Amino acid sequence: MSAVGLRWLLPAATVAAFELWFCLRYLGANRPENDDGERVDADGGAAADDAGGGDVLDAVDDGRAVDRADSQTAVYESLGAPNLVTLTRGALFAALAGFGALAPRPGIAWLPAVLYGTGCVLDAVDGFLARRTDRRTVLGAKLDLAFDTTGFLVAPIVAVLWGQLPVWYLSLSAARYLFKLGRGLRRRRGKPVYDIPDSVVRRPLAGVQMAFITAALSPLLSPLATRPLAVIVLAPSLAVFARDYAVVAGWYGETERA
Questions:
Q1: Transmembrane residues, as ranges (predicted)?
Q2: Is the dihedral of CA 80, 50, 101, 118 positive or negative?
């Protein structure tokens, strides 16, 4: 393998190894969701993850809950088509990570945008298949959210390294982890943690971010064009994170204890 191939392989393999570990960690959650709509966690985490938080920081604690539930609920013998599509998304994002170690050049200029854009499109496909085949699983929800977070971390980093986005755009990726970290610290310190109310803007904002990052990764937009657009796209998402954490901490709005 060439030196260029080795440089691409190291970050790609690192992300792929994490994704494989995450899947194996929660393999016992390959079971139907409860009739009451059991999702990733019962503390409002799924709502936060629509805005961009992930399950990564909660992996160990959530895993214990999964292990307890497995003794009571039958686990599917196969991953199923929806989860295979989600794993394909993870593979695309892992491949994208490798381009962060390469210098941009004409022969590969479109590949990051194609990889990330395809992964974003498949985000709708796995959900559609899960509903169509009645194969909505706890594992699928966890993988979907974790890989969304992976994509939102990897893609902006590649765009920054390629000079397509300003470094401060990475505050979006940092906000996802800081939200989960802050919520977890409140629990560990015995402070109240409140549920996040439903929002009509979280998913649309996530979709806007995906579309913008895909465009920023492509040669279509110059760095001079992406910088002002980044301000416009980033500000609402950071505002939602701040608002949601204020709700979680009980500083804002009508809250219900998680």
A1: 152-179
A2: positive
Residue pointed to by tokens 């941009």? 104
Residues 99, 92 contacting (CB under 8 angstroms):
no
Residues ≥6 apart with Cβ < 8 Å to 106: none
Collect all residues with Cβ–Cβ distance below 8 Å to 48 and sequence separation of at least 6.
Answer: 179, 180, 183, 196, 244, 248
pLDDT in tens, 194-238: 988 778 888 899 999 999 999 999 999 999 999 999 999 999 999
Indicate yes or no: pTM above 0.70. yes
Dihedral angle, C-alpha 130, 136, 142, 148, nearest 10 °: 20
Domains along the sequence of the chain with CATH: 3-248 (1.20.120)
> Can you tell me which residue has the tokens 């993988």?
143
Q: Which of 200, 82, 73, 206 is nearest to 134 (CA)?
A: 82
Greatest Cα-to-Cα distance within the chain, rounded to the nearest angstrom? 58
Cα separation, 14 vs 52, in Å, equals: 21
Tell me: the pLDDT tens digits for 23-34? 999 999 999 977
Give me the average pLDDT of each 10-residue run along the chain (258 residues).
90 98 94 62 43 45 48 79 96 98 95 98 93 92 94 96 96 90 92 85 91 96 94 94 90 62
What is the C-alpha to C-alpha distance for residues 140 and 76, in angstroms, rounded to an integer?
12
